[in-house]
Amino acid sequence: MWGEHLVGFGDWHYKYASGREADWFVTGFASRKAALTLYFMTGVEPYKSLLAKLGKHSTGKGCLHIKNLDDIDVSVLSELINNSARDLFKPKAK
């Protein structure tokens, strides 16, 4: 649990450009009033092709909102989560 309402998986330590550091989860979710919200530390922009196959959803900068799990392809969601977690730890190109 990350706070009272977030369920997070994995540990990720990161550093802002300002030098501030923080620890957070690799991926997580929260059940919100309007939808189930999944959080991706890589953002969702890199996964447009997967999102196109996912089904009915909406996005924010780093999150995915799903109103009903029956509206999405769960295997695509699994691939999205796995790809995001893998990509978070890829070495950055210089």
Output the keywords:
29% strand, 94 residues, two-stranded antiparallel sheet, single chain, alpha+beta, globular
Structure description:
- The protein has a five-stranded antiparallel sheet with strand order 1-4-5-7-6. It has a two-stranded antiparallel ribbon with strand order 2-3.
- With 94 residues, it is of the alpha+beta class.
- β4 and β5 (36-40) form a beta hairpin.
- It has one domain.
- α1 (48-54) packs antiparallel against α2 (74-88).
- It contains two helices and seven strands; from the N terminus they run βββββαββα.
- The chain is globular, with a radius of gyration of 14 Å.
Brief characterization of the structure:
By secondary structure, the chain is an alpha+beta fold.
Q: Could you tell me the mean pLDDT? A: 92
The count of strands amounts to 7
- Choose one word for the global shape: globular
Strand content is 25-35%
> What fraction, in percent, of the residue positions are helical?
10-25%
Order of helices and strands: EEEEEHEEH
Number of domains: 1
Alpha plus pi helix count: 2
| Biggest sheet overview | 5 strands, antiparallel
Outline the low-pLDDT stretches: none
Structural class: alpha+beta
